[in-house]
Every structure is written in structure tokens, then in C-alpha cells.
Amino acid sequence: MISPSPVPVAVVGAGPYGLSVAAHLKARGVAVRVLGVPMGSWRARMPVGMFLKSTPRASSICDPGGRHGLNDFRAAERRAWVGDRYAVPLDEFVRYGDWFQQRCVPEVERAAVTLIEPAPHGFRLSLDTGESFTARTVVLANGFPPYARIPAELRPLVAAGLASHTSEHADLAKFAGQRVAVIGAGQSALESATLMHEAGSEPVLVARTGHLLFGDPPDSDRPGDRPWPVRLAKPASPLGPGWSFTAFSRAPQAFRYLPDRTRADLVRTVLGPSGAWWLRERTLGRFPQLTGHEVVSAEEVRGRARLRLRGPTDTLEADQVLVATGYRVDVERLDLLEPGLRRALARRNGGAPRLSPGFESSVPGLYFTGLAAADTFGPMMRFVCGTGFAARTISRSIATAIATAVRR
Ligand SMILES: Cc1cc2nc3c(=O)[nH]c(=O)nc-3n(C[C@H](O)[C@H](O)[C@H](O)COP(=O)(O)OP(=O)(O)OC[C@H]3O[C@@H](n4cnc5c(N)ncnc54)[C@H](O)[C@@H]3O)c2cc1C
Fold first, then answer.
1. Total domains present in the chain
2. How far is the CA of 141 from the centre of ligand 1 (A)?
């Protein structure tokens, strides 16, 4: 079925970034179609039993009126206000996202976009329902899964069905009774290994770093309660206390003026591999942890994975390998963009889209938000706390473009 007249804006994705930008566009009177499973990545691509690393304050999806934060949701459920020392469980965050969606963007359509191609009045979107329609503007908010990174040395095991990326699993209990090599030292690696250990697997963590790092517990639930010298030395920010985090969260527009290399390094290293403060006790010393080890090659041997390591232990055998080596943005991996459209996208730093101050790519009318915008606007775009800046900026940019087109 082909829908007749073009819609002004299609938002592809109904995670925190898609929902937030849709709510802001609606508040500006812009008609929008929103496609995707609400909180789809949080339901299907994060492990059951997980807790958020971000504080409740930094885990609110931004709505235009500021009345749909995580604590507003808790109040609606008649539950107590929570501060920085509360670790938000995954299932609570998903319920919060659903609540936000039902109240702010009830018109979300649970359809997947299978193809986006250029059309005379913008873009033609094909859906898995068989429908296709034209949108003048597209905001791509399809999240982190397309960018899952698996190092080359582990790919032979993926082909053999012996290795997978963390983003492919919601249920880690299925590994119970198996020896699983977990590669990485970030929150995802540490928490996945811990959850598997607690569910009866035998995880073995393999990490290049010499020491596993964990954050410090917050001094108080409200940052304003800290003594003023502490506040001055380490001002509070959604990314954590400290002047650099404050700069990244207060001045994302300035980030884009940094040299290419500096931006790429900052996006990769700011809030780099470390576990949340509440994970330390559950993780350290609880299962084998091969720190200071690097995987140099991997092969299948009699139906199991054999890893060659550089480090004091040189070989590790496991039933499965769980790859927790994060994400790297490369628009070449966006199969849903028609190849010509992909080729037309100007890129930088190995594949991130080059974006305007309003989040528009080099293809007029095609916007990117969330992780794909981190190379331009900084590390805040990797987290829920970036939804406000992104949604305000994109909705203003699109509303201005529409008003300009109408005046012409
Ligand atoms: C294990 C893990 C833990 C994390 N913990 C935190 C944390 O504690 N705090 C924090 O701030 N951030 C955390 N993050 C980062 C977090 O993923 C982002 O902050 C947030 O999810 C980004 O939102 P998003 O809307 O851009 O993308 P996503 O949440 O990935 O949402 C993408 C949306 O797009 C939809 N979609 C995808 N493809 C299509 C398609 N073709 N058609 C239609 N819809 C489509 C999906 O269904 C989904 O609705 C974590 C990430 C991981 C992997």
C-alpha cells in the first residue's frame, strides 16, 4: 500500500532519543509519524537483571514541558522520590519509557522501516507491514545496535556460532552451565559476566587493562547537599562530577569545533571502560578475571572456542565467547539506507555522519540523533541525558526549515 501525500517528518526509532524528539516536534505543531518498538533496544538488547549506570537524574527522557522525568513516573506509581544513590533497575526504566511514550507520543507505530530511499519530495520509507510512504524529513533515531563492534580476530568464531556481541542477548541465563569467555572491561562486560556468574555460568573475563575500574558511590542523593568546596572542585553534571563532564554536558555545540582526532578520542575515552560503583562487590574476585590479557587470535577446536592470548595465560578454551567491546559508528552499516543515499553522506572519523549544528546530515532533510551524533556533539549523545539538547535542537531546526519553505 502506498500512502498518498508526504508527511512532514518521520522519526525512525522509538527509544529515548526518538520519543524525545517526536514529543518536541509535536509541541512545535509539526506533524510526525514515529516508527519502531517503544524502548525496543532496552527490551531486547540489554540483559535481564541489569541496572542502569546513570543516576535517576541523568536517566530522564526529556519532554517539552519537563513533567515526564523518571521521578514523575515514580510519583505517578505512588513510589518514593529517588536520588543519585539509587540504581535504576532495567525493568523500571522500560516501564518508565512506556509511560513516557503513552503520555507524550501515543501515536508510535510498531513497524520497522526496511528501506529509506530518495524521493521527489523527500524520502520514501518502506515498512515491514508492506506500506510505503513519503516524508519530507527523516530523523534517524535507530540507536546503537547497528554499530555493534566485533574485533576482527573474533569474527571466525561468530561465523562458527561460538561468539556473539552483548547486544544480541537479553537472557544471559541461557548460558547457565557453560564456560563463557567475556571480552571487555566496560560496564557491559563486567555486568554481563557478573549476571552470568550469578545465574550459574562459568564466566572468564578477558580484559586488556591491568586493573578493573569501578566508579565511586555518590556522596549524597542531591548534588546540592555536598559541601561547597567539593561542589566547586567537582561540579555536578549528568555525566558525573567534574569540570570536563560539566563542559561536555553544558556546551555540546562547542564540541564540534574540536579537531577530528580529539573528538574521536574523547568520544571513545570519556566515561571509558569502568563498572558502576554498585557492581564492585558483586564482581571483583567472584570469578576468573584475566586482566592484562589481549586476544590475538581465535579458532574453533572440536566445537569449542579456543582463544590465543597475549599475557601471562596464553590459551583459553570456552563453550561460548561474549564480545563486550562496545560500538563504533559507521553509516556504511545502515542497511536501511538505500546505497546511493549512504554514499551521499559526508562522514568523518571512520564513518560517523558529518552533521550541521541542527543535526542535519549532508543529505538535506536527513537528520541523525543519539549515538550517531556523538562524534559531532560529544559523549553526552551516548546517554539518555543527551535527549534534551538533541530534541530541542532538532525540533527547532526542522520547524525553522518548514516555516522558511512555507514563506517561499
Ligand atoms: C548494555 C547497555 C547499558 C546502557 N546503560 C545506559 C545507562 O545506564 N544510562 C544511559 O543513559 N545510557 C545507557 N546506555 C546507552 C543507551 O543505549 C542510550 O542512552 C539510549 O538507548 C539511546 O537511545 P536511542 O533512542 O538513541 O536508541 P535505542 O534505545 O537503541 O532505541 C532505538 C530505537 O529504534 C528502533 N529501531 C531500530 N531500527 C529500526 C527500524 N529499522 N525501524 C524502526 N525502528 C527501528 C528500536 O526498536 C528502538 O525503538 C546503555 C547501553 C547499553 C548497550
1. 2
2. 9
CA 145 – CA 154 distance, rounded (Å): 18
Ligand 1 pocket residues where CB is under 6 Å: 12-18, 35-37, 40-42, 46, 52-54, 59, 112-113, 141-144, 188, 336, 370, 382-385
Instruction: Give the position, in ligand 1's atom list, of the atom nearest the Cα of 336.
Output: 41
Of the chain, the percentage scoring pLDDT greater than 90 comes to 84
236 has a pLDDT exceeding 90: no
Q: Which domain holds residue 177?
A: 152-214+274-323
Q: End-to-end alpha-carbon separation of the chain, Å?
A: 32
37 and 79 co-located in one domain: yes
Same domain, 280 and 136: no
Q: Quote the ligand 1 centre to 316 CA distance (angstroms).
A: 32
CATH of residue 106's domain is 3.50.50.60
Interior angle at CA 59, CA 58 and CA 65, nearest 5: 90
- ipTM comes to 0.99
Region for residue 171 given its phi and psi (left: phi exceeds 0; alpha: psi -120 to 50; beta: otherwise):
beta
Mean pLDDT of 302-326: 97
